[in-house]
Every structure is written in structure tokens, then in C-alpha cells.
Amino acid sequence: MSKEKFVDIYNTYIKIEGADKLLAYLSDSSDFFTAPASARFHSSHTGGLCQHSLNVYECLKDYMSRERVKNTYNLYASEETIVIVSLLHDVCKINTYKPSTRNVKDSSGIWHQVPTFSYDDKLPYGHGEKSVYIISGYMKLTREEAFAIRYHMGFSGNEDKGNVGSAFEMFPLAFALSTADMEATYFMEPVEPVV
User: Fold this and answer.
1) Where in the chain does DSSP place strands (E)?
2) What is the model's pTM?
């Protein structure tokens, strides 16, 4: 269901040249639609990456529709830009998570092996910058889109904090995407305890 919804939104709004080739790559040459969004934290299940991307889309659409954002902050982005940055911000995670197991002690103190994912990045190019790199191989991003995706981790990432603040000031969409990503991660995708 998530894949169909993702593809429908993607094809409805993203009309830029090369978008079809990127979608074909995500569908045919990557695990985007089956990968988790993380190894052990938010959306750490099969299909979690696609669902997380849809959640970020919903959060960003909501954020951008707020009166204060539009009328006080004067922040506007086209529907195409909202879809691009939200649905594609984490393409850096494709082909990096592998099924694995780990040992977990249950409430009785007995150890059990539980399924999980391990992280194995064959293209260690960073996080947001890796997403920009992959997308740019297929379609041209605007500067605002590239900065939004690059800095979507905000102050929680490994980036120089001064650069994050500067990016947010220069490209407020980066702040909006970071806010949407955190909202989706912490409120829509709580980590379920393993017992």
C-alpha cells in the first residue's frame, strides 16, 4: 500500500526531467520500497523507509499550510518541491540495511535472538549530501531543494552546527523539512520495545 501511495504522489507532482528514471531506479535497482528507515530506531521494519518518507511528506504539507508559516514567515514552496524534498530526503538509506539478528533479554531474564537490521553502507558519502548526490544523478534539484535535503537532519546530525544555522537562515525550507522529519520520526514512528 505504501509503495502505491508513494508512486501515485510522486507521479502526480514531480514533473521534472529525469524523475521517471529516478523512480525506475528506486523501484528496480534499489530496496527503497522494502528497506527499513533505521536499523533499530524509527520505522525499523520492512517497508519502513517508504512509510517514513510518506510520513515526512504529510508533516511537511501540514507545516507549509499553516497560516503563520505562510503569512508571518512568508515561506512558500511548490507542491512539486514539497514532494521532492520529503519523499526523497532519505534515499541515502537505500541498499544499506541488511537483515540480521541480535540477542535481547526478555522480562524473565532469558536471552532470545530477534530479527533486526545491520547497517552496511557501500557508498559512505554522508547522509543528506548522499541523498542529494543520488538524486542529482537523475534530475536537477533547485538550490533550495538541495539545501533542504542536505540539512534535513538539522542540529541532530553530524554537520557543523554553524552551517546548519546558516542553511536554515538562507533556505527556510531546510528548517521546515528538518521539522517535518523530526515530527514524523518522534511522533508518528515511535520505537517499539523489543521483548
Assistant:
1) 97-105, 111-119
2) 0.92
